[in-house]
Structures are given as structure tokens and as C-alpha cells.
């Protein structure tokens, strides 16, 4: 049986994989994200995804290790999690009514062979127009501080999102269609490793 290891502390990534039939072991990478720089948001999230997967792959003898990193790209800048309520408020006041790209870097390492497959997935996100009072209430909920881009699709942020173009799981934190392709690049079919369905 192919062991799947998720090198991420993200509860949302784990939930997406479990709902999709996998039951990964979680080993948090502990990579210091602040220490990494890059030329572009896409390069940043890919470098970080690869660093997280590589850090955990060293601890695993046999299995597929998945590392991810998500950033919001707006005006060519990369936005991760806000560092304060004030920052989250400022971001929402400047991004409401606008369109950005949620980028998630993905890296899968087959620890038995050392083979690696990595790519960035991009989803266009259109922000709604919450009022200053709504922004204050959303920031006060604490949710924006825990997520890249200070918004969620599937949480309280969903009230303030006008729509997306592309894969929604990528916004939540891990793109299932891209992950299926990366597994295939490593010779693994996702339907051969998902748990047998129990929907009868
Ligand atoms: N539920 C949910 N979570 C989101 C959404 N957008 C971003 N996130 C989360 O925001 C976090 C992005 O930060 P990252 O640095 O990529 O990941 P992390 O949570 O710090 O965990 P590591 O992978 O261990 O670094 C992830 O946990 C994503 O799942 C969303 O729309 N819904």
C-alpha cells in the first residue's frame, strides 16, 4: 500500500484529501517560511512547497510526501497570512471589489526513488465588496489571520467572495486535479490508492 504523507499543518488540506478518499499521515515540516525569498509569487510558493516536502521526505523511508504553499498574488505581490488584525483590515479594504490569483505550489516526492514532481496551480479569485463594518467583524472572528490572502472560500470569507475561475480546492489549499497529475508523473494512479468507497 502506498503511504501518503502530508507535510502540512493545514487542517483544510488534510480535510480536502480525506474527503477525496486519502488518509494521509501528517508530518509538519517546520520550514521557516520567512527565511525564503523569490523573484515572484509563483516562484515563492513553489520554492516553499518543495522545501516543506524535502524536509519531511528526509524523515520518511517509503511513501509519497506532499508539500504545499499558498499565496495570494495581487498587483504582482505575494500575500500570505496577515501578521495582525490591522494588516488584515488594510488588506481587505484594498482588495475588496478587485481580482487576484490564489497560487498554491505543490511538490510530491517519492522517497523510495527520490523522484519529484512539482508545479504551481492558479485560481482567479474575485473579491466582493464588504463594508468597513463587515470587514471589522470578519477580522474580529480571527479567521483571516489563519489563512493565506486573509480570506477563505469555505469559511466566513465565503460571504465576501464574488466568484472564482479555476479549481476551488486549489484555493482551499491543495489542488486535487493537479495532485492527480503529479501522482501520475510519478507512476501512481490516484484511484489505486484512494480508500475503497463506502457510499452504498
Ligand atoms: N479552509 C480554507 N483554508 C484556506 C483557504 N485559503 C487558504 N487557506 C489556508 O491558508 C493556509 C496557507 O498557509 P500555508 O503557509 O500555505 O500553510 P500552513 O497552514 O501554514 O501550513 P504548512 O503547510 O505547514 O505551512 C493553509 O492552511 C490553507 O489551507 C480557504 O479558502 N479555505
TrEMBL record:
Q: Cross-referenced Gene3D superfamilies, in alphabetical order? A: 3.90.950.10
Provide the reaction this enzyme catalyses.
a 2'-deoxyribonucleoside 5'-triphosphate + H2O = a 2'-deoxyribonucleoside 5'-phosphate + diphosphate + H(+); a ribonucleoside 5'-triphosphate + H2O = a ribonucleoside 5'-phosphate + diphosphate + H(+)
Family note:
Belongs to the Maf family.
Top enzyme category: hydrolase
Its keywords, alphabetically, are:
Cytoplasm, Hydrolase, Nucleotide metabolism
Compartments, as annotated in UniProt: Cytoplasm
Query: What's the name of the protein?
Result: Nucleoside triphosphate pyrophosphatase
The cofactor(s) it depends on are: a divalent metal cation
Pfam families, A to Z: Maf
A Gene Ontology molecular function term for this protein is: hydrolase activity
Q: What is its EC number?
A: 3.6.1.9
Q: Tell me the InterPro entries matching this sequence.
A: ITPase-like_fam, Maf-like
- The residues responsible for catalysis, as annotated, are 69
